[in-house]
Q: What sequence folds into this?
């Protein structure tokens, strides 16, 4: 099936409702952001995603980049990818559809096709 034919073949039972859940804010991080002079909307975004305030969160230099293995879930993901490669399993690469998602998809695909 392609584009329109696929869409026409779907019924309402194929769709599900996704509710947007508001993130709880870490009040210490929120207060630290406000005290550091960040706009309220930025303080809310950071406080909804971080447990600790890092004053260098918007420092855009190579020195500010943290090692990938320090990111939540990365060691587990690496182990799973290695296992899939050794077991000759199919690996699905899934990203969101925005600039960084498309870019990361391209980088991952190029890496997989040239190194595995």
A:
């Amino acid at each position: 099936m392609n584009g329109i034919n696929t869409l026409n073949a779907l019924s309402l039972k194929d769709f599900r409702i996704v509710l947007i859940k508001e993130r709880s804010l870490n009040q210490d991080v929120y207060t630290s952001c406000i005290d550091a002079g960040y706009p309220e909307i930025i303080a809310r975004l950071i406080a909804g995603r971080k447990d600790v305030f890092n004053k260098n969160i918007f420092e855009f230099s190579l020195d500010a980049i943290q090692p990938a293995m320090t990111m939540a879930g990365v060691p587990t993901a690496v182990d799973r990818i290695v296992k899939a490669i050794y077991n000759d399993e199919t690996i699905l690469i899934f990203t969101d559809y925005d600039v960084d998602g498309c870019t990361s998809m391209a980088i991952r695909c190029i890496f997989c096709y040239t190194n595995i």
Summary: The two ends are 30 Å apart (CA to CA). DSSP finds five helices and no strands in the chain.
